[in-house]
Amino acid sequence: MLLRRLTQHVKSQNWFAVFLDFFIVIAGILIAFQITNWNEQRQERAEEQKVIERLLKDFVAIGHEADEKIEFLESVEDKFVEMQKFIVDFGKGIDPKPAHTFFETAFVLPSMVGQSATYSQLVSSGDMSLLSNDNLVAELVSHAALTQDLVHSDQSVRAFMRPYTVPLVRFSQLIESLPLEEAFSESGSRSEMIVTIGLYSTVLRGQLARFKDVKDSISKLTDILKSEQDEPQSALLSAE
């Protein structure tokens, strides 16, 4: 219908009407394009919000895990002091309780916290572009690098400590089946066990510092994610 009108106006040389028809066509195309663009932005923002919600859920859970491990590492420090005193003062008739308590509660090296499954999926699928906040992307990449470095560091520390822990591992096993004095004498020298306790205590303090670094990184991320989650409309308006 519009094309027929345009043809009639050209034949009658009604150039104003021709210009008006062209204007209507172009305006209609621009409006349709803007509506399409706006709908695409809304869809992209809706998808981004879903990703942000999943990321926030991941990092809240990882943060809780880090909190638990920090609390554990802080709580066992005195157990190492008690165990070292137990070894130094070991003699006939000594109370075995500090040794049992140490092996039941403190003689463990917590593993590093994991990475966000949502972040790993975004990277593997190439969908990081869904996130419009450059600061958020930078913090995610920084946290992933920190986590990866700490995993490698943790593996190296465990490999380094493995031969040193042999006397204490043997003692932890023998104490369950042999008299205390016999289990102690069969486990290795007193000096070896004291060195192991000292090294292990140092490793745990280092691990505590690393968990606190991870927790600080997670806190930054959750703050940014909550801000992004609270203001989706303002982000959409700025995108327009």
Lay out the secondary structure.
Blueprint: H1 2-11, H2 15-75, H3 77-88, H4 97-105, H5 117-125, H6 134-161, H7 166-174, H8 180-187, H9 190-230, H10 232-239
Helix pairs in contact: 1-2, 2-9, 2-10, 3-4, 3-9, 6-9, 7-8
Question: How does this structure look, described?
Answer:
- This protein is mainly α and 240 residues long.
- It has one domain.
- It contains 10 helices and no strands.
- It has helices at residues 2-11, 15-75, 77-88, 97-105, 117-125, 134-161, 166-174, 180-187, 190-230, 232-239.
- Helix 1 runs antiparallel to helix 2 and helix 2 (15-75) crosses helix 10 (232-239).
- The chain is rod-shaped and about 120 Å long.
- The protein starts with a helix and ends with a helix.
- The model is unreliable at 233-240 (pLDDT under 50).
Query: With helices defined by DSSP (H or I, 4 residues minimum), what is the helix count?
Result: 10
**Helix percent band:** over 70%
How many strands, which pairing sense, and closed or not: the largest β-sheet?
none
User: What is the domain total for the residues?
Assistant: 1
Mean pLDDT: 83
Radius of gyration: 33 Å
Instruction: Report low-confidence residues grouped into runs of 5 or more.
Output: 233-240
Strand content: under 5%
